[in-house]
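To illustrate the input format used throughout this study, we show a single complete record. The first block contains the structure-token representation of the backbone; no residue identities are included at this stage. The design step must infer an amino acid for every position from geometry alone.
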């Protein structure tokens, strides 16, 4: 279990944390590759067509044992309704795949905890710049919420969460924050958990810990821009500018010394809390990036948080 090395004063006092206050944890014995966990008992439906913007873009479905699923009632099938998770891989928006061992592990991990999990591929930059990837996420949520999938997988369409790391963290954050209103229809989701996501892709984001020049080039390729001086998509692709009071609860995790500056997550958490959005923020000692920080303690925290936020009403 991780050792809590710094507890927020507000939490000690029994008050909600404010600003960018976080629970700081220090894993005492971090496995070299904690994300390489195998779940051979979890069934996986591979390469399911969800109607993405490219014919070869598919998703995998990781199926929980019925006994493990959070309880609920599916009005369509009169079977136990199950909460769903959308899992979105990282890779700087230009690489990565749902079938990569770490992301297959994430899909099966959520399923082993009772969530029907949809691990998706999306169109990649630079061939497919913004907004192709976020358009594919939106399409995936619509597909999951469609009555066909609701009946097929015994889903509660009001209880869809999203998880992503790195570029996937950016995408699920944008998905969760865009739009306004309830979280039970359209492309809205009911909870977002993200790790190490770039949050401000505009030039203003350079002041948030300093974006390395090579990653600035990665961002420009994703945005479809040659320079930042003329790049309107930068703001639209930045979750920081989409926050409003109707947004779903967030779980944010970030390592203290990793390649995406922690100030990016600090800024998001502060803005979410200013808007009154319930936000749990965990910072981890060390330099582990994205799902590489998923030790047993962080896994337990995320699952506990998701079970509370995606519980049936």
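Output of the design step:
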């Amino acid at each position: 279990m991780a050792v809590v090395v710094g507890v927020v004063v507000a939490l000690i006092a029994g008050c909600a944390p404010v600003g960018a206050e976080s629970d700081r944890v220090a894993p005492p014995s971090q496995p070299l590759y904690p994300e390489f966990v195998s779940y051979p008992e979890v069934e996986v439906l591979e390469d399911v067509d969800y109607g993405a913007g490219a014919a070869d873009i598919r998703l995998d479905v990781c199926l929980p044992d019925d006994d493990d699923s959070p309880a609920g009632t599916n009005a369509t099938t009169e079977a136990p309704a199950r909460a769903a998770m959308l899992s979105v891989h990282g890779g700087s928006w230009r690489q990565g795949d749902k079938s990569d061992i770490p992301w297959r592990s994430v899909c099966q991990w959520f399923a082993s905890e009772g969530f029907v999990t949809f691990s998706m591929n999306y169109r990649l930059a630079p061939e497919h710049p913004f907004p192709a990837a976020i358009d594919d996420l939106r399409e995936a949520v619509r597909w999951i919420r469609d009555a066909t999938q609701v009946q097929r997988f015994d889903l509660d369409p009001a209880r869809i969460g999203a998880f992503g790391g790195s570029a996937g963290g950016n995408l699920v954050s944008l998905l969760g924050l865009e739009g306004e209103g309830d979280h039970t229809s359209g492309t809205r989701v009911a909870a977002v958990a993200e790790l190490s996501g770039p949050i401000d892709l505009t030039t203003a984001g350079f002041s948030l810990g300093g974006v390395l020049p090579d990653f600035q080039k990665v961002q420009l390729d994703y945005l479809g821009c040659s320079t930042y001086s003329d790049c309107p998509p930068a703001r639209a692709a930045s979750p920081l500018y989409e926050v409003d009071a109707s947004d779903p609860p967030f779980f944010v995790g970030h390592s203290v010394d990793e390649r995406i500056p922690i100030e990016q997550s600090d800024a998001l958490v502060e803005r979410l809390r200013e808007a009154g959005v319930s936000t749990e923020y965990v910072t981890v000692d060390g330099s582990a990036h994205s799902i590489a920080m998923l030790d047993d303690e962080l896994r337990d925290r995320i699952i506990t948080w998701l079970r509370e936020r995606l519980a049936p009403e």
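Structural context for interpreting the output: The first helix runs from residue 9 to 12. Strands lie at 3-6, 23-26, 43-48, 59-63, 82-88, 116-120, 155-165, 191-195, 250-255, 279-284.
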